[in-house]
Structure formats: C-alpha cells, structure tokens
Amino acid sequence: MWAIIISWIVSAVLIVVIGVLQGWRVTGHMSGLLIDARGRYSLTHLQVALWTIVIMSLVSGTAAGRICHALPPLDFDIPGEVLAVMGISLGSGVLTTAAKTNKDATRPESVAASMPGRFLKKGLTGDEREQWRPRLRQIYMQEEGTFADKVVDIAKFQNFLITLVLVLAYIAAVGQSLHTAGSASNFKALPGFGGVFLTLLGVSHGAYVAAKLPPQTGSPDANLRERDEKVRNSAPAAAAQSARPDK
Fold this sequence. Notes:
By secondary structure, this protein is mainly alpha-helical. The protein is built from 8 helices and no strands. It has helices spanning 2-27, 43-68, 80-106, 117-120, 126-132, 154-181, 195-212, 224-243. It starts with a helix and ends with a helix.
C-alpha cells in the first residue's frame, strides 16, 4: 500500500514542478500557470490545476504502485462522479473563457488587466510596475468595471471556497480509502463523490458562469485596452534599446 501512497505523492510533486517550470518560462512567475490572457490570476486556472493535480496524480500513483506490487497497472476503476468533477471544472472553464474573450474583444476598456513579470521589466517605472503587477487575490476579486480589484466578487469567492473544501475533502477520502483497503490488491477503485456534493459543485460553477455574463459599467484603473497599448508601444522601444551599440 505504501507504494501507492508514495507514488501518488511523487506524481503530484512532478505535476506541480512541471506546472511551475512552464509558468516561469512563459510569464516569469513561479505561479504563472494560474495567470490568464488578461495577465491576472484566474480562478478557472486554479480550479483546473487543483483537480488535475489531485486526480491525475492519484491515477498515475495508483498505476505505479500496482506495478510495484506486480499487479495489473490499470486494473482499477475511476468512478463516474470523479470524471463528472473534471467535466464540470473543464466545462465551466470553457464557458467562462468564452465569456471573457467576448468582453475582451468588445469592451476592453471595462476589463481589468495586469502584466506578467516579463512585460513589467519593459520600460515601466516603479509605480507603473506596482499598478500592473498580478496579485494572487485577483482569484476572487471583481475583474470588470469601476470597482475591479476594489471589491470581492461574491460568486467567485463562494466558488473558490467550495473548490478548496471539496479538494481537501476528496484528499481525506482517498486517505481513508487507502487505509481501509489495507493493501494495493484491495484498492480496486478511486473514491467517488456523493450526489449532494456533486450537485453542490455543479450549482456553484453554474452560478460562477452566470455571474460572468452581465457586463459591468465603468473602467478599471488598469484596463485591458491601456495594457495592450503599453505592450505594443514597449516592443519598438525595447528593440531600439537592444540594437543601440555599447559605448
């Protein structure tokens, strides 16, 4: 049984390391995997990342542990409820991304935006860097309109809390299932979710998606249109600076 537990932990660590490296390479932030096209920390990215780390590491860890015990690596079941959780998370991610993309294209002046680390270094003063820096609290803050980053988005906040609670509860359920099984040969299926909790997650994600649809009035202090203009203007300046001969 310890082979499954250790393999699960190692798999989770490897997935996290890969995510950190990719985030750093693309954005200049170790948590860059959580940053979206607006340059902001995204609740959707966090949710997909959490469920991917927990469930995929458990699947790979169970398979690896069974190999260590000379058992068929894929001879275990993944309950439909677990697949439904992944489906809800990915499905709401697609819908919210579509809603955000539409607003980015039609109302960029009303959308709050930030700049990942690699862009912050290009021709911005200290105060400007502070203004455009991504912040982790953006995960649950309002991201459109006059009060963007000034008030908590209650739909995002409740979805954030429910996700954390269910992820932690599922990890505890896995630990209990492994303890009850006692051996790798008896661990024949990943633990599932009760129908009530699955409904809770679905309702929470539905409310989160619905809250994305109505447009917010006003313009944030740091909006998407201004951000894109700064990025476009900084490119020629950076090119000219790099082409200037050393004295």
